[in-house]
Amino acid sequence: MQWHWKKSGLLAALILFNFLFVMTACSSSRISYRELNRQLALARAEKQAEIDRMKKEMASLRSIAAERDGLRVKLESVERRAEECRAERSRLENRLREMERERAKWERTRKAAREAAARARAIEEEKKRIEKRLENLIGRRQLGVDVTELGVRITVRDAILFRSGSAELRGSAWDVLREVAGALAQSQAKEIRIVGHTDSIPIRTPQFPSNWELSVARALAVLHSLSRNFGIPQEKMVSIGYGPYRPIADNGTEEGRRKNRRVEIYLIPEGEASSPGAGG
Description:
Number of helices: 6
CATH architecture of the largest domain: 2-Layer Sandwich
CATH class of the largest domain: Alpha Beta
Helix content: 55-70%
């Protein structure tokens, strides 16, 4: 009986111990659960904060990307404008160069026009001086004076200077050439060009195989007389012969042939092109 009570007491003590252990364990579990919930809530808050921060960063990045795209568009626009400006600058520079060329050309043209006008005035004044100096010969129709594109021209009839078919100056040529030399000595011409012409009737002699040789010989005869007898510098003179190939009248008539047989003396001013002579 006593053992029975001991056994009952031991069992009661064991039950009480188990109850206390379970209660203690439950209490500990409740504490761990609360702590877990607290840590979970804290972790959620941290993650949410990180998510919010990342959202802000993403928004900032999107804003930066949008700004970058806007800047890229602006940059492309600026580059296009810069290219347009470069093209416009190149066009303006080309136009400026063209205008400079046009201006230089205009200046040359204006200068040439002024020089041509000055030459024309000088030639006309020289023509008047020569006409005054030779007015007696002009009045007797022994020679004529006019203006050509080369300058003043003195035209002398060949019958006054030469016999038919000859290149030897006649005695009557002396007075004419003396007056002509006086006019030439006062001239400022750069070149004195003496040109012989014949009519179309052919000449065939040992001395002159053709009219060409005759025209050259007559021009040379006048050149040498002006130089040797009247002091006109040889270096200023040139002689040319054209034979029958530069007629001024119809060679089919006696009057025309008479006009074509002539010696021309050109007073060529500075600036006009010179031509090589056929002799002298």
